[in-house]
Amino acid sequence: MEFRDIEIFLALAEELHFGRTAERLHVTPSRVSHVIKKAERRIGGPLFERTSRTVSLTPLGERLRDGLQPAHVQIQQAVDRAVAEARGITGTLTIGYTTPWCADLALQAAEVFRDRYADCTVRIQEIQFHDPYGPLRRGELDLQIAEVPAPVPGVTDGPVLFREPRALMVPADHPLAARDTVSLEDLAEAPMIKPRGEVPKILMDLHLPAHTPMGSPVPAGPTFSFWAEVPALVAAGLGVSVVACRAARFHSRPGIAFVPFQDGPTLDYGVLWPATGQTPSALAYVDLLVDLAYKPGDD
Question: Residues 37-47: what's their mean pLDDT?
Fold first, then answer.
């Protein structure tokens, strides 16, 4: 078996789905099927059991996977070390993030990155909404995983990693909490909690607007410096906040509810980097982020 064929076999053994395997390896499902059939002909027995609904390894396939996997890992690590040395992937890579789901992705990518590039250290740190681009513009970060686009000079937008439907985080006893959905016009019915600091107006208009699309004013609520303050302020009945629907998995607590929006844009999260350019280490890390973000089941 050629190296690429082994890679396809091992990926299918992990995913147990031809479509997901093809997407992960950037090939067609027919290519995956062809490689597996060729391997089965060469070996002389079935490696997978296939039905219209499921794919599973046969005992022969399991033994082949267990035999190939350690060697494949060693080969890949040797190649990665050579690539790292050739490209200069060394030193320290500092990554910022703004949400827990961005942090999860950053840490997942960092774990893989450290295995591949042992001479490069990865540091992860949280970025606060009241100074969303300062650390990146001051050169304190190499990359940032955050809301995009970034409407400021000195920062360049990279690939989008998540497109999140939005929700309104409201006090559990607020009338809006009983709704199945809310609209942007409903923002006029409760004070909006907003960050302190010099947040670009275009960013505020996108995420925490002062007026509804029809022009109704959105009442001003209390302000915050750190995101951890927001759920507490909402639970106390002091205001509401626009969040990603995924926030319900990370910030649920007594006294608050999350109601999806029926209209409005998604909240998009992606990679930001300094306009001056990217290092080889940063580019290699971004490639990992893209692969992991679009891996099926990540949600």
Answer: 94
Cα of first residue to Cα of last residue in the chain, in angstroms, is 34
Instruction: Report how far apart, in Å, the C-alpha atoms of 197 and of each of 79, 134, 204, 229, 250 are.
Output: 46, 11, 11, 15, 25
pLDDT at 272 over 50: yes
Domain count within the chain: 3
Predicted confidence (pLDDT) per residue in 48-66, tens digit: 999 888 999 999 999 999 9
Kindly state whether residue 299 falls inside one of the protein's structural domains: no
% pLDDT > 70, the chain: 95
Range of the domain at 184: 166-263
Residue 122 belongs to a domain with what CATH number?
3.40.190.10
* Residue 196 covered by a domain: yes
Instruction: Tokens 């992606």: give the residue.
Output: 270
pLDDT in tens, 193-215: 998 877 778 778 878 889 999 99
